[in-house]
Every structure is written in C-alpha cells, then in structure tokens.
Write a structure and sequence with these properties.
alpha/beta, 6-stranded mixed beta sheet, 5-stranded mixed beta sheet, 10 helices, 18 strands, 21% helix
C-alpha cells in the first residue's frame, strides 16, 4: 500500500524540576543550598530514512514523544536530560504545521536530519539563587513544559521525469517497457491508484528516474478523483511527458484531453504549468485514420512543443523518445519546488515573551505562553518564590501592560488560575 499523507502529533520532553535542598553534613550546623538543576527535555527530530518509501507506518502510530528530563537532587546533582525522539520519514517528505498549513521543513536530501521541536529547559536548583543577603533560598524553579504540535506529513515523489495524462492512455505500459517497474496494467480507468517509480537506462549508459503519475482527470485540482493527491507527485519533476491516446480508443478528443490536463496543472500550480513538456502521441499502432495525429502535430507546432510518436505496446519510437529525454534533462536544473522561506523551528524561547490582557467584569485576565511558563515555575506558597514571580512580571513587561490597561489599587488580576489583588 502506498500512503502519501499522514497527520501526527509530536511532543518534546518536559524539563526536569530543580531541587530545593541543603547540605547536611556531620559537624556542619547550617549547610548551604545544594539543589541541582533539572535535566533538559528531549528534542523532536525528523530524519530521512533511505529504506522507507511510504508513510504507511504513520497510519498506526499517531503520536511521537521525546523523553522528559529528570529532576535535580541534592549535592548539586543534575537531573539526566531526556532522550531525543527521531521520527524517520521517506525521502521527499514535507512536514507542515497542521494549524497554519505552513511548511516547516522539506526533507528532500539524503541523510537530512532536522530539529523540529526543542525540549523544555530544566529548572534551576536553589543553589542558583543564593546571594549575600539571601543565603538559604528555599525555592527552586520547575522545568519548562515541552511543546506539542500537530503536523501533516506529505510525501512527494522524487523523479526527474513524470508521465501525465488521462487514465488509460498507456502511461503504465510505457513505464513497464522502459524500466524494471511492474505496475498493474489493464483496460479500465484508474488502474494506477498509486504512483510508480522506475529507473530508465538508455543505450548510451545514461539513467534517470521516471514516475508514472496516476491518471489526472477534469476537476483534479479541486480534489475530484483523488486529484490533488496525484498532482502533488508531479511537482518535483523537471520534465513532463504528456501522454495522449492518439488513436482515440475511448472516443476521446486528443486536443481536448491536452487542454484539460494543462488546465488542471495550471489551477494546481502556476509553476507546475510552466514545466517543460514533450507531447507523447501513444497508440499509433491502433490509429484508424490520421486526423487525430494531424491535429496534434498542428497543436504542438502552435505551442512550440516537441512531439514524439510511439506505441507503448510494440515499443515503436520508445528508444528515440527516451534517448532524447536523457539529453533534455541534463539541461534542466534541479530546483526545490517547495519554498521554505523562513523554516520554522518551534521553540519555547520564541513564545516566552507573549501574553494577552483582557478585562472581563472588571477582572484583569493575563494569559499566554509567557504567563504559563512563569507560573509553571514558581511556588506561590513560598515567599521567596513569590517575590521571584513579582520580579519576573516586571521583567516581562506585564506590570507595565496592566498599568496601560488602567489597573489600580484593589483591582483583581488573574494569572491563569491564580487570583491576586493589585497593589502599588
């Protein structure tokens, strides 16, 4: 089974908590703070797996989680960092943010490995907070929570040349004749449900990858007949062989077929519509008259396109076509079809300054990643930890923002589930 789309959840590890402990030794009346830091949570990576060619494994495993960091302990012992989680995907996989649809990374190079989610930082132990005036801090900082994201995986075949055309025009037969690929071939629509790849080796020793793309039909760009799933595989090809049934064996008009396929390519992607094409007039062995061929030759001349006449069944014209294709693709540059302008790596640091303030029924409600991060790391019941919170509220700009919103003495301020009375 060929699977080219999957939606999964990834979560980086939580950071371990710092420890609030003190030295306890014989003959030492009051040992100093010796709490160790928590370990860092594991990261999430995506890596190209050379042995994979579908996304089928992601139908059964939907969630991938890195290991949490361990808590710190006394005697300045740091917690162990969590193990990273590496998600292995086939070459040609694109990872998108499920919420925004934005491309996170394009895994189109052999051996490529990319960091996607960073783990939470470990919390600091109380030994970090000792000063000349505060020699025995009784609080430590909790570790940061890991980040969770839903992402979409899309597999786009990596091929130099793509065979496009309506169903049942002979694309699979061509592939089977010029490569060692063995696609299913029969006389009915959508025989090819999955894309097939094969390596063409010419008589001159050149080779390139050829993809038989499932038949594209009218409305494919809107998803009709699984069209968008098929079209995504055409994107990476450098050259398109537009296969047309010149014999009109199903009563189809070759000119109309040519125009409809190109309309769908254009609707799906302007860039794809500009890809170089060669018209391949197939089934010349079954032609009853020359009118279809004459019209197609005229069209090729109008479009300034090359046309090759072949019979996939008898093999006539195939050598000439693919020797020419081998020379053409040497002149066509490889390019990244997917533009990843600002590749996203989600980090907690990116969001730590974000917060919002809403006033509901006279209550000032402060929310956002900055507040979640702060409140997850303090102990409200400890005076020193509470003062640390007040210091951080000022540092993050939350105090100033509340004043701008009009907060005054005696007003209620809510930080997540904690409610405070404002005082100056």
């Amino acid at each position: 089974m060929f699977v080219d789309y999957a939606k999964i959840i990834i979560k980086s590890g939580n950071g371990g908590n710092g420890a609030a402990t003190f030295r306890r030794e014989k003959y030492v009346a009051a040992g100093g703070p010796d709490g160790g830091d928590g370990g860092r949570g594991g990261d999430i990576y995506f890596e190209v797996d050379p042995n994979a060619n579908t996304l089928i494994d992601f139908r059964y495993t939907k969630k991938f989680k890195a290991e949490d960091g361990q808590n710190g302990s006394g005697s300045h012992r740091f917690g162990k960092s969590g193990e990273d989680c590496t998600v292995k995907v086939p070459l040609g996989t694109i990872v998108k943010d499920a919420e925004t649809g934005k491309v996170i990374v394009d895994l189109s190079k052999e051996g490529q490995k990319e960091l996607i989610l960073k783990g939470g930082r470990g919390g600091k132990g109380n030994s970090h907070f000792a000063t000349s005036t505060r020699q025995a801090p009784r609080f430590a900082i909790d570790g940061e929570k890991g980040k969770e994201k839903e992402v979409i995986l899309e597999l786009k075949l990596l091929a130099d040349v793509g065979l496009v055309g309506f169903p049942n025009v002979g694309k699979s037969t061509i592939l089977s004749r010029v490569t060692k690929a063995t696609p299913k071939i029969a006389d009915y629509h959508f025989t090819t449900i999955d894309p097939n790849l094969g390596v063409v080796k010419t008589e001159y020793g050149d080779s390139f990858v050829l993809a038989d793309i499932p038949g594209i039909i009218e409305g494919a760009s809107e998803g009709i007949g699984l069209g968008t799933q098929f079209l995504r595989h055409v994107e990476r090809t450098r050259l398109l062989l537009h296969v047309i049934d010149v014999a009109g064996t199903e009563g189809r008009d070759p000119i109309d077929d040519f125009n409809k396929i190109n309309d769908e390519l254009k609707k799906y992607s302007e860039k794809l519509a500009e890809r170089k094409q060669i018209i391949v007039a197939n089934k010349i062995d079954s032609m009853q008259d020359d009118s279809n061929m004459e019209n197609l030759v005229k069209l090729a001349k109008e479009k300034d396109m090359e046309i090759y006449k072949i019979s996939a069944v008898t093999g006539e014209g195939l050598n000439e076509l693919f020797n020419h294709v081998s020379e053409i693709i040497k002149t066509l540059p490889k390019e990244e079809i997917v533009d990843v302008e600002d590749r996203i790596v989600y980090t907690l640091e990116d969001e730590e300054e974000q917060f919002t303030i809403d006033i509901i029924d006279g209550e000032f409600i402060v929310e956002g990643p900055a507040v979640e991060r702060l409140m997850g790391r303090v102990n409200i019941g400890d005076n020193e930890s509470y003062h640390y919170m007040e210091k951080m509220l000022k540092k993050l700009g939350i105090e100033d923002a509340l004043r701008e919103k009009g907060v005054k003495e005696g007003d209620t301020v809510k930080l997540l589930e904690w409610v405070f009375e404002w005082y100056e």
